[in-house]
């Protein structure tokens, strides 16, 4: 009986220490400019066709900070702006830019082939990676991240309204934060430096 | 006091209230958060047909006063809360540093959009008066937080 009690107190002490260390780590984290998820969860995995050929999987970039965005190559305003901001942020990071991977997943699989995405993204930064797939695959990815995409017909053509935030995934593959559309390159540089320093 | 002077009392009270609203220092909060919480059982209530509106379609924040949007999901299922998908027990803390109007895609609202208006810090007496008047109107205003058609 006494042994049971001591096991229970040791267990409680370990649980308390674990809780304390989790809280201490959370409290020590420097503030980000992006919206922060607390506690962070593992970023949902992708298994899509990469714009460079082969399979696009987040697990391949575990040692890098990943900036994950959603959009389409025919987007008139939001996507070009976002991608230009991300390209600027990478430039301003200097030598640390190699530790950052931008991944852009299409919300328009009908038009965005891997080849088309590669050509489009290269215009912003040759290291940017695109991801495409079947409508069902892409819908599953969007659901996992809480991303909205809605096709709107315009005459004989169409556009796609979509969420415009960019997700920040740390080196451990945790979904740490979400940067809203309209933030400046320096906001990304600040947050990337924080995440890269961990 | 003569009856003629009675109307002066509310006028003086109004004047004092306006002077206070214009000149009193702004409230200070170290966290500067504007919290919105999904309580436990929200999903079950929605499934049973209740219309549960927790997050306003339009949120007004003020730099230096409440410029951090804080969302927390206390329900037992994942919830799309404004621009973020939150797991049970998870929170999302989004700071704003620039006064502007921000649009977010949000499937929780029928319009598919949520607007966050961030006002500049009301440094002038006129700014404080406007800020307190807007707060008062919001406090007595649209309780459901959904726009009136």
Structural features, described:
The complex is a heterodimer of chains A (198) and B (149). By secondary structure, chain A is of the alpha+beta class. Helix content of chain A is 38%, strand content 27%. Chain A folds into two domains: 1-30; 33-196, Glutaredoxin. Chain A has helices at 2-28, 78-93, 114-122, 135-145, 185-196; strands at 35-42, 48-50, 55-56, 65-71, 100-106, 129-132, 149-154, 157-162, 166-169, 174-179. The longest helix of chain A has 27 residues, at 2-28. Chain A is globular, with a radius of gyration of 20 Å. Chain B has one domain (3-140): Sandwich (Immunoglobulin-like). In chain B, the strands form three sheets. Chain B has a three-stranded mixed β-sheet with strand order 1-3-6, with no helix packed on it. Chain B is elongated, with a radius of gyration of 19 Å. Chain A binds chain B through residues 31, 33-39, 41, 144-148, 150, 161-165, 178, 180-182, and chain B through 69, 80, 83-87, 89-95, 97, 100, 102-107, 112. Strand 1 of chain A pairs antiparallel with strand 6 (91-95) of chain B, so a sheet runs across the interface. Chain B: This is EfeO-type cupredoxin-like domain-containing protein.
